[in-house]
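FAQ: What does the model actually see?

It sees only this:
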Amino acid sequence: QLQLAESGGGLVQPGGSLRLSCAASRFTLDYYAIGWFRQAPGKEREVVSCISYSGSTKNYADSVKGRFTISRDNAKKTAYLRMKRLKPEDTAVYYCAAVWDPGPVICTGDIDKGRFDYWGQGTQVTVSS
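And it is asked to produce this:
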């Protein structure tokens, strides 16, 4: 089955930037929608962003619009989340997830994390001075 691995997390000061990567193994990402999610201590896992298999549809949570950018390189089997102007409230474990979506429909409208079948182990992002 599809396996995902996140990387790129770390400690960054407020206002700083990070780029997270989500690398797939065993299978390509063709026709898979990719979502980025995050979970802070004591809170539910929430949607951050979503990108369709072709990259033509992108969706962002209101809290990250204008600061985060999602992208993908299917030839490299990797998706990315570029995060700028980071805030302490962005501190969380960040997960990428994938779902087969040739429609595509997953990344339109409200994103339902329950529809994603494959998940990575997560990478910690800490924004603190």
